[in-house]
Amino acid sequence: MLRRIPIRSLLVFWLFVLSAVAFLDRTNISIAGIAIRNELRIDDIRLGWIFSAFLLGYAAFQVPGGWLACRFGPRRILAAGVLWWGVFTALTTVASPRLAGALWIVILLRFSLGAGEAVMYPSSNQFVAQWIPVSERGRANGWIFAGVGAGAGLSIPILAWLISSHGWRASFWFSAVLGIAAGLIWYAISRDTPEEHPLVSAGELRHIQATRVVEPAAAATPQRPLSADIFNRNVLALTLSYFAFGYVAWNFFSWFYIYLAEARGLNLKSDAFFSMLPFIAMTVCCLAGGSISDRISQRIGLRAGRCGIGVVAFALTAVFLAVGSQAHGLYSAGVILAGGAGALYLSQSSFWAVSADLGADRSGLVSGVMNMGCQIGAAATASLTPYLATRFGWITAFLFTAAIAVSGGIFWLFVDPRPAHLRDVTGPPEPLADSPR
Predict the structure, then answer these.
(1) Domains and CATH numbers, the chain
(2) Which distant-in-sequence residues (6+ apart) come within 8 Å of 179 by Cβ?
């Protein structure tokens, strides 16, 4: 049975697992946030500093992480990264009001954790560029990033139970051990390229080699300088749009749990499932978005399949946020806002499929630049959202987030998803709706 499953599919599934563990490790701080805030005797603004510290470390090391994935391969770099973030997750448990400078020590630990996790998605995108045919990249990235919703969503009941039963430190030890085990398994089962993997069949290898690039190598232009792959309109537009994505998404990862508890009066022990809704929606829509993107790309064209999905997803997100923030009922507000989270994640696989197509053998580096923008947006929301909510109210905070979502959709209009050598040959970008290919 297992021998009939392509090796690339098994490895994509394990990247889904690593993605889930990564978000378990990074969102446990928001679930434990109330307990940590009370123990350290800090306010929400300073708790936001702790949230932001992770994101700043994560953003700062996106490009170095992408370079490392290109230079040393996703197998070693991902395994090392998972071990790194497992150690720093465990070290977070030293936080105590009896420890001098406890707030700043936690901030430093979270920054270091972010630096280690920075290799996760540039490395996975380097894997996708080497292992996954172009026609499967939307679905592959859909699965990888479905781990985001799965990890963040499943962490709520599991970690909430651990925190209530054994204290907040138990949730960090659980996350650390799980992460280290997953990283060791990845190192054992993966290889950097399909040519190196002993279990890849001859048929699967021929299929990957024939379809992992958009055009045969003979059609490509001579080697392009590094600056041409990074400093261009497409990467800039992707990065700015992904900044908006990060800002919106981290409203859910950092503040949704606290918003439901303190602004809406949700009982987190009895209604933990309700707080999972945004992350369930993210998981389902991430998988659906990847599949839809691949189908539209094959039938109409890459620009419709990748960019069109991005525009529609951000527009729907803005509508859900604007309406949900003003709903009067607790459950109606939560469900509508969860719809915004799901709509946003319809676009997730498009970002990474396009960066893999544009970057080719440098996809780790290109996606690192793009993801740096996302994490800067995430760091901004970690501190700006509590400020807006405290100063002007939660409705204003969510309306501002909706405006950011609109800008994210606009930036997709400036993206041409075709690789550089095809743009050079065929000229201006195709319209969002083109004739079938």
Answers:
(1) 7-212+227-419 (1.20.1250.20)
(2) 21, 22, 24, 25, 82, 85, 86, 89
